[in-house]
Amino acid sequence: MSKPTAVLLFAAGLGTRMAPLTDTQPKPMVKVAGRPLLDHALVWCDELRRVVNTHYFPDQIQAHLAGTGILVSDETDQLLETGGGLKRAMPLLDSNPVFTMNTDACWRGSNPVSVLSQVWRPEMEALLLMIPRHAAVGHKGSGDFDIGATGRLSRGSDFVYSGVQIIHTDRLADIKEDAFSMWSLWGGMLARGGMFGAVYDGDWCDVGRPESIPLAEAMLEGKIDV
Fold first, then answer.
1. What pLDDT does 140 receive?
2. Strands of 28-125, DSSP E
3. pLDDT confidence of residue 226
């Protein structure tokens, strides 16, 4: 299967940086511009089989998704991190490669899923959508990667990972732990030269903290020049 047909949207985290807004709700249900963050992510994924994982206040997300046909990967027994969450969701996703998407960001411009689809090549192990560090609204800290002349990624600081990727899942079977981060896959992919990056041409805002919400709303209204 050369093109991914499904997406896992990560919605299981505790959202500690978003406190106190997450004292009574999961971070994906925090509203930006009147809509839950989860809906800001889902809108880009209409053409895909959509799976959302849950752990923290799972009933709220399940109720929100009721009747939509969106599948839920239940992690209420254990917080599995990103890699473990992907491993558990694989039977529901039924796709290799697969999209994964964080739910704590807002986008304005081209569909990020479509951008990756257009760049993806089957020989890639992973393709991450990247934001130039200077254009990463709401992001605190340094960048995550550099992008070489051929598009290959290396550890660096010029680009911020947007939270959307296409990734092959073959090597998940080699990881015996239940809970592990995406870096358990990425580390080997970087070493083999199999991780690539595509640069997003629109606007993106990291919505990880309460103070990022007004920034995201201003960006969505076109009031931030990035």
1. 87
2. 31-32, 35-36, 49-54, 71-74, 98-102, 105-108
3. 66
pLDDT bin (cut points 50, 70, 90) of residue 1 is: very low
Please, what sign has the CA dihedral across residues 97, 61, 56, 33? positive
- Whole-prediction pTM value? 0.95
Instruction: Measure Cα distances from 5 to 43, 68, 92 in Å.
Output: 16, 18, 12
In this prediction, residues 29-35 reach a mean pLDDT of 98
Measure the CA–CA gap between 24 and 200, rounded to whole angstroms.
33
Question: Beta-carbon neighbour count of residue 118 at 10 Å?
Answer: 10
Bridging pattern class, strands 195-199 and 126-132: parallel
Q: In what order do the strands lie in the sheet with 105-108?
A: 105-108, 203-206, 136-137
pLDDT score for 2: 80
CATH assignment at residue 24: 3.90.550.10
Show the domain range for 74. 6-220
CA separation for the pair 219, 205 (Å, rounded): 7
What are the φ and ψ backbone dihedral angles of 190, each rounded to 5 degrees? Answer: -60, -45
